[in-house]
Design brief:
alpha+beta; 6-stranded antiparallel β-sheet; TATA-Binding Protein; 117 residues; 30% strand; globular; 3 helices
Length: 117
């Protein structure tokens, strides 16, 4: 079962992240250099989260990124059309929405090299 079909990074932000200006513990939505960061929490493991986002299937808006994480405890997904990365770490999650295609491409390359954001 998915959140909403098709699942997009925007829908993940709307359903699972803290609205801008609000806080939930240490989580908040805030502007960072070159992107907006939206933090949230999901009560499921990595396998369930990827399935919920429908990222196992080919040709969906969100895809699981290879390498860079410690599957299934921490990993990232990409939503290319929205220049967004969705990061998951044992239930904590965040969505980074990049301002430019260049910033997004750089973030994907940095992730593939195993460098933390």
């Amino acid at each position: 079962m998915t959140l909403i079909s098709p699942v997009t990074a925007k829908k993940v932000i709307e359903r699972l992240c803290v609205p801008e200006g609000e806080r939930a513990g240490a989580w908040e939505t805030r502007r960072k250099l070159g992107h907006m960061f939206h933090a949230g929490f999901v009560m499921c493991d990595g396998y369930e989260f990827v399935a919920m986002l429908d990222a196992w299937r080919p040709f969906t808006p969100i895809r699981l990124l290879p390498d860079g994480g410690d599957w299934p405890y921490s990993f990232a997904l990409a939503a290319d059309a929205e220049r967004s990365m969705i990061e998951y770490c044992e239930g904590d999650m965040g969505v980074r929405v990049y301002d430019t295609a260049r910033a997004y491409r750089d973030a994907l390359e940095k992730y593939a090299r195993g460098e933390a954001e």
